[in-house]
Design a protein that fits this description.
196 residues
Length: 196
């Protein structure tokens, strides 16, 4: 691109619909889901499903309201603009800084979770080195062309969604079948032989 937008240049949409859908889906799945869920499930047991469902309902309602406001009045600035318009300047100021601080802390928490995973597979590498590697990798991906960013986010979101599906399938297997290395395979073989 490299065009000056002030002198009549235009922006070009480089992301496809599949990129946007997977980025939206993958953004809701953070490293904390894999890292933090184990302790929560151990503490709450099956009741965690109810907690996640209740939290998901609240988030869905909030995002639906925000979507309605955006469709009614599409402006740049997002919910900080709406806070300024409907709640006043001080609320918008607090919300804007809260947004920035939370995402800064969240980014560091995500990097810390990544270093825990990398330390499991590469225990000899120091934690600061894996943290630095993750920060440089994320900054590098974000500073590349938007098409490369979209493809990278698409693939990483696909990996996260696939991992969740596999975890659910494996959990159902553990819950409803005897835990044996070849039990599921033998059931599938018998089922397919009946069909043929």
């Amino acid at each position: 691109m490299g065009q000056d937008l002030h002198n009549g240049g235009t922006l070009k949409r480089s992301l496809k619909n599949r990129h946007l859908q997977m980025i939206a889906l993958g953004s809701s799945i953070g490293t904390g889901l894999f890292y933090g869920s184990a302790a929560t499930i151990e503490l709450a047991g099956p009741a965690i499903i109810l907690s996640y469902l209740l939290g998901g309902i609240f988030i869905f309602i909030f995002m639906r309201m925000l979507g309605e406001m955006t469709v009614h009045e599409p402006v740049g600035g997002g919910y900080v603009y709406y806070a300024d318009k409907y709640l006043g300047g001080f609320a918008a100021y607090l919300l804007g800084w809260n947004y920035w601080i939370i995402y800064l802390l969240l980014s560091m928490a995500e990097v810390a979770a990544c270093t825990v995973y990398l330390a499991f597979w590469f225990p000899d590498i120091p934690t600061w080195a894996t943290s630095l590697f993750c920060i440089i990798l994320i900054a590098g991906i974000n500073s590349m062309h938007v098409r490369f960013y979209g493809e990278t986010e698409f693939v990483s979101s696909l990996i996260k969604v696939s991992a969740i599906i596999l975890i659910i399938v494996f959990g159902l297997y553990i819950a409803f079948a005897e835990m044996g290395p070849f039990k599921l395979l033998s059931v599938l073989c018998c089922f397919t032989s009946v069909l043929w």
